[in-house]
Design goal:
The chain is of the alpha/beta class. About 25% of the residues lie in helices and about 15% in strands. The protein has seven helices and twelve strands. Strand 2, helix 4 and strand 3 form a beta-alpha-beta unit. Helix 2 crosses helix 3. The N and C termini lie far apart (about 60 Å). The chain binds zinc ion. The site of zinc ion has 8 residues, from strand 12 and helix 7.
Length: about 290
């Protein structure tokens, strides 16, 4: 037998659909249902081995794979960028194992998987946003014990988190958290919204879209269902605020309403570009936000 023939026989069959076996999908979906039923609550699940290392988006990938249908159109972004190596490879993986279409257009996608950003364009009730989460526990900054943080959530005891924020105000005159800004979900659980900038936090509040959060390494899934209150922790005299880009615009498309990345040129000149490359590309073609 020729080596090539033998290799072809040794190939893992294309089924089951979308890489995960039915048992794994069932486990993830069960966790998703519970997560949707208790917004902001971290549901433990049996995180499977993926064809990439934990910490590279395996939590988000497992959620996407367990939801994927052949009719889906998938968009994958990494820090807002459709073209980064990680985003492109995850997209290729879905094309291969799920036989789905991929896109860079937020409005065209039925499922968007992302790391560290929420797209600028408003998503609707027919769409799902899957976020890759490195650290699901919002209270980890103030408590290292998992047993203790779970008890704090159960008792809705967030005093130490408030104290942590208050200390920031005392030391620096403001809350300095730039990302992973803690939010109260549905008036109950304090949640880590993953390392999105503050700019993206208001997009979670009373949205039309279902947001699913997956932490593969930490084996946790949580969710923000549509039309759910997501309120950043703030004090009456020190309100939550988003990043200020006033007076700045994207050097590529001219946008003044998007989250901007600062790029330092070779001559030391600073310029700003949309972090959401799909949004930037669309604006370049003459499209405007309706
Ligand atoms: Zn732009």
């Amino acid at each position: 037998m020729q080596a090539r023939e033998w290799l072809a026989r040794a190939k893992i069959p294309a089924n089951p659909f979308a890489f995960l076996d039915d048992g794994a999908k069932k486990d993830v979906r069960r966790a998703l249902l519970k997560a949707v039923a208790i917004p902001g609550y971290q549901v433990p699940y049996g995180s499977r081995e993926m064809p990439l290392a934990r910490g590279w988006g395996t939590g988000g990938i497992q959620i996407t794979l367990s939801l994927l249908l052949p009719s889906d159109t998938v968009k994958v972004i990494d820090q807002g960028c459709d073209g980064s190596v990680n985003a492109v490879n995850i997209k290729k993986f879905y094309e291969r194992v799920g036989d789905v279409r991929t896109t860079t257009d937020t409005r065209e996608a039925s499922l968007v998987q992302t790391r560290h950003r929420i797209p600028e364009e408003k998503m609707d009730e027919g769409q799902i946003l899957v976020l890759q989460v490195p650290y699901p526990e919002a209270l980890r900054e103030v408590e290292s014990s998992e047993a203790a943080t779970r008890r704090m959530h159960a008792e809705a005891d967030y005093a130490r988190m408030w104290l942590h924020l208050y200390e920031d105000v005392v030391h620096y005159g403001e809350i300095r958290l730039a990302y992973r800004y803690p939010c109260t979900v549905n008036g109950r659980h304090v949640m880590d919204p993953s390392p999105i900038p503050r700019w993206d936090v208001p997009k979670l509040h009373m949205a039309d879209t279902l947001f699913l959060f997956g932490a593969g390494r930490e084996r946790r899934i949580y969710a923000v269902p549509p039309h759910t209150r997501v309120e950043p922790l703030e004090f009456e005299d020190h309100r939550f605020r988003v990043e200020d880009f006033s007076g700045r615009s994207c050097a590529r498309c001219g946008a003044t309403d998007s989250f901007l990345d600062e790029i330092l040129g070779p001559n030391g000149a600073r310029s700003f570009y949309c972090s959401d490359t799909g949004y930037c590309d669309k604006r370049r073609t003459g499209w405007t936000r309706s």
